[in-house]
Each structure stands twice: as structure tokens, then as C-alpha cells.
Amino acid sequence: MLEHFNKAFESKARLGIMSVLMVNESLSFNGLKELLNLTDGNLATHLRALEEQGYLLVRKQFVGRKPNTTYGATSEGRLAFTNHLNALEAFIRTGQY
Question: Which intervals hold domain Winged helix DNA-binding (predicted)?
């Protein structure tokens, strides 16, 4: 049962990032930071790790003269997160390893 847990989502911050992005098409860096109450450095580290796994799509653009970075879950990220949640739910229901 535990083999279906995804280590990429073990951290509270990454679990929060993916949870928020599953219900929002995309969010800005600042939006994620405010929602999850994370520091710039902490959020950036976790976003980078999820991006390296192929779970996040990063869009960088300028709004006026200000840089704006938004993040969204990729289809691979959505599938991996759904599978992780299903494994957690099954574990909670059965209590078996």
C-alpha cells in the first residue's frame, strides 16, 4: 500500500501547493505565498522541486513593467497527486501497510 505514496508530496508545503493548484487553474507566486503562509525562499524551494518532477507548469511574463510568475499543475502532476491522495485514503480506511 505504501508503495503508492509519492515522496514528492511528503512535505506539508508541497501538499499545500498541489492542493491549491488542483482547484485553481493557476496562481501567482505571491498568491501561493499568501494562501500557504510561506516565506519566499521556502516557497521557491518547494516549487522548484515540484517543477523538476514535471508536476508544475511555470509561466513567466510581465504585467506592465513588473515580472509575474504563475504556476499551474500539469496533467502529470494532477495524476500523481490524485494517485497519492487515493493511496492515503486507502491507507486510512484499511490501516494496512
Answer: 14-92
